[in-house]
Amino acid sequence: MALVKLRELTRFLLAQDLAPAEQWDSWMENGTLEAADKRLGAGVRVCRLKYDAVLAVERYSGPPPLLIAHVVTWLMDHDPERDRDGLGHPDIDVDVNGDDTADIEIRIGFYENLDLVRDDAGAIQFNGARWRVEMVPVYEPDAVGVGDDKALPTDAPYVRKN
Predict the structure, then answer these.
(1) Would 47 be classed as within a structural domain?
(2) Does the residue 31 lie in any domain?
(3) What residues have CB less than 8 Å from 17, skipping those under 6 apart?
(4) What secondary structure does DSSP assign to 115-154, as a single string?
């Protein structure tokens, strides 16, 4: 789903009570839609959205390393594919004010998928069917067999637990 990472990171930072909510702002810039027609079993991926998330806090009076640590650790926990996707490191601009505060802007590149799930009442018409925007569930197998010799433990039949 698009802009989930921006929304979730913003919520996370607000919950840390680093500055009053009215001092925060966040938005998307430089969005690019990369078309994809990838079948995912229970749905289809129609595109990837690449964008810059911008998070800004005005009159920040806390220690900048605390804010930076929150952003970086959130990224490590919630966006582990950053290196694989070729996303650069976050950029930060700090404007020091005369009253022991600073205006801080952090820019982070993100990729997010836009997936569709078949739904007869869905708002989107695509490939002769109706669809709704929703993250396609990924089912991970519990066991996989390789080869054809059932006497070997690696050749066990595939078993899925529901």
Answers:
(1) yes
(2) yes
(3) none
(4) EEEE-TT-SEEETTEEEEE-PPP-PPPS----SS-TTSGG
Instruction: Flag whether 55 is in a domain.
Output: yes
Q: Which residue has the tokens 């009053």?
A: 20
pLDDT tens for 55-108 read: 999 999 999 999 999 999 999 999 999 999 999 999 999 999 988 999 999 999
Tell me if the pTM is above 0.90.
Answer: no
Residue 162 in domain: no
The whole-angstrom separation of Cα 121 and Cα 131 is: 8
Angle (CA) 157-161-162 rounded to 5° is: 140
Token pair recorded at residue 129: 């069917």
Residue type, 158: Y
CA angle 49, 103, 32 (to 5 degrees): 10
Strands 91-96 and 102-118: antiparallel
Total number of domains in the chain: 1
Check: CB of residue 109 under 8 Å from CB of residue 126. no
Three-state DSSP state, 83: coil
Q: Which residues contact 93 (CB under 8 A, 6 or more apart)?
A: 104, 105, 107
For residue 65, the enclosing domain spans 4-155
